[in-house]
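Example pasted here:
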Amino acid sequence: MAGTFVIGAGPGIGQAVARRFAQEGPPIAVLARSRATVDGAVAAVEGAGGKALGLLADAADEASLRAGLDAAVERLGVPDVLVYNAAWVRYDRPGELSAAELTATLRVNVVGAVSAVTHLAPRMAAAGGGTALLTSGMPTARVAGTSLSIGKAGLRAARAVLAGSSGRGACTSPPSPSPARSPRVPRSIPTGSPNSTYGLPGSPPSSGRTTCCSTA
């Protein structure tokens, strides 16, 4: 199997996660909707000594996202790890966004994650298993961040549903500081907040600063 696919590889969490996984050896596919972001992510991974494939993909556009993932699979093979880090971060209060504007944020913050995981999950399972990491955070809703709060809550719900569909159990708090290390997921994921994770059949329990779903 290939290495890791990172969707939403912008400066910050996306590039940090890509650099960290690159340290494990296999190449990294970084996907984002702008060429500048893709080129920056590739440079960040290569600057850390890793190998990266940069691809354009819009998380809000299912056809674009699937095409980008298919191109990554064609070049690198089926990934061990899929990271969904795309997010529309904006600060707004209830009623400030139109229904269309709120829906647009959910296409990025929730729907794109479901599209990405369900598109690759069958192939990952057929190849022996893998892990999906969905960056969430914002465990407490904030009035001043209404669309983002709704999106992150929806993403956590999506993670639980996806985990249930794969037959994986769920946990809702970070694992203990010293679990057995997964050979596929680095012990330390360099993020500023917990993530949502679920494993596909055949994958070992994941570890690090994440909330997780896994089976033995």
Observations:
- Residues 169-183, 187-216 have pLDDT under 50 and may be disordered.
- The chain has five helices and six strands.
- The first helix runs from residue 13 to 22.
- The domain at 4-199 is CATH 3.40.50.720 (Rossmann fold).
